[in-house]
Amino acid sequence: MCSQEGEGYRLLKEYANGFMVSQVLFAACELGVFELLAEALEPLDSAAVSSRLGSSPRGTELLLDTCVSLKLLQAAVRGGKAVYANTELASTYLVRGSPRSQRDMLLYSGRTAYVCWRHLAEAVREGRNQYPKAFGIPSEELFSAIYRSEDERLRFMEGLQDVWRLEGASVLAAFDLSPFPLICDLGGGSGALARACVSLYPGCRVIVFDIPGVVRMAKRHFSAWEDERISFHEGDFFKDPLPEADLYILARILHDWTDAKCCHLLQRLYRACRTGGGVLVIESLLDADGRGPLTTLLYSLNMLVQTEGRERTPAQYRALLAPAGFRDVQCRRTGGTYDAVLARK
């Protein structure tokens, strides 16, 4: 086999086996492997891990060894037995108590997004999300499907908190937001992005606007509401009156919806926005030709299987903002997963 053919075959196997790697990661998070090893006073052998997790000895050993190969765990031999401990990667991103933990977003991905992705071919054929096939749930009311139970709503909110824990400061610093003393974070969920905002801009106040069930859960399970600079307002941003503000944040919002619904929402924001104010759109931006970056393209396919929207190019966001009346549209790449678009009234 020539080297070129060998490289192609290697890539093909890597792509084909990608779902297996994802499932190893999801399963280890769901079983609590990384928390157990983080709390242990010393590295544990597979029998001890199996006993404490209530999992099968054979399955546990296979999972642990695969995690070692993936650099999620490290192994050493003591007394003739392999013992396991978290790597720095796992300690940083996979243990729930870590300030940079992504565990909850991974659990959401494994339990919800992954199930929808099984039906990607159908989504491409039909051009619509796959909640009916994946969960037997009608998909007309998008967030009724995403929030299909109290547990799933909490998991989604915890997952977004993970995202903004790592990405919030960089997207909020892409532009100087200090001229906007009153900010409204539409669909702000747990208030994680609002907390990042008041931390970066201590002089501002933030209203988190979300549907009643989300606001109730935010007050019950999250601490943002304890900051006097952050308040919560219940409502549906497509139908209910919007709070007046100097700046509206739409973080991972427009990618959920069709162009028509995005235009309708932006027109409502323009009417509610104070003169001189604006809107900050936070999304993963596609390249100008729409064929990259790969992560954003995958996110766009995720929008196909889970929502009615898509990821967009800077030009496509300009085309949504201009008819609503917004001007001076600026796009900034952050170097991270999410980028920023600021437009003024």
Give your account of this protein's structure.
The chain is of the alpha/beta class. It is 50% helix and 17% strand. It is built from 16 helices and ten strands. Helix 4 crosses helix 5 (57-69), helix 7 (103-117) crosses helix 11 (150-172) and helix 11 packs parallel to helix 12 (192-200). The mean pLDDT is 95.
Secondary-structure topology with pairs:
Layout: H1 3-16, H2 18-31, H3 33-39, E1 44-45, H4 46-53, H5 57-69, E2 73-78, E3 81-86, H6 88-93, H7 103-117, H8 120-126, H9 131-135, H10 142-146, H11 150-172, E4 182-186, H12 192-200, E5 205-210, H13 212-221, E6 230-234, E7 245-251, H14 259-272, E8 273-283, H15 294-306, H16 314-324, E9 327-332, E10 339-344
Parallel strand pairs: 4-5, 4-7, 5-6, 7-8
Antiparallel strand pairs: 1-3, 2-3, 8-10, 9-10
Helix pairs in contact: 2-7, 4-5, 7-11, 11-12, 14-16
